Amino acid sequence: MKGRKTPQEKKSLSYARDRRNTYGESDKGSRTSIKRNKTKPSRAYRRSVNQILQSEASSSDLQNAELLDAEVRSVKRRKWRKCPDTPLGQYVKERLERRSRSVGAKIKRRAEFKRRMGEQI
Fold first, then answer.
1. Domain identity same for 71 and 37
2. Which of 12, 48, 62, 92 has the fewest CB atoms within 10 Å distance of its CB?
3. Taking a C-beta distance cutoff of 8 angstroms, is the pair 87, 15 a contact?
4. SS3 assignment, position 20
5. Predicted model pTM
6. What secondary structure does DSSP assign to 105-118, as a single string?
7. How many structural domains comprise the chain?
8. How many other CB atoms are found less than 10 A from the CB of residue 86?
9. pLDDT tens across 51-96, in order?
């Protein structure tokens, strides 16, 4: 039987393994945009190769075919890689820091506003 994990071990593993989407779009939106971003480079590559082949399709001599082959091989395929989401531990840490920075911010803004209004009168 495997060793049982304590709740503290489970939480530290969760903080290390789990991820949060901090890219700025909804998690549902990223499901479709990842697929779309994967297909775009392939589509662009196929389109550029087909344009080269279409433009040179009428001539069929051997030397021209070699030049055409070299031109097609010179077309580079662009790559797209998914950026990993933020680890949960880092996400929680940043949220707590943000919360501590914003404590009393409204009170400070209100005091600054009253001070400025007092100067104008």
1. yes
2. 62
3. yes
4. strand
5. 0.57
6. HHHHHHHHHHHHHH
7. 2
8. 16
9. 888 877 666 666 777 888 888 899 998 988 888 889 999 999 999 9
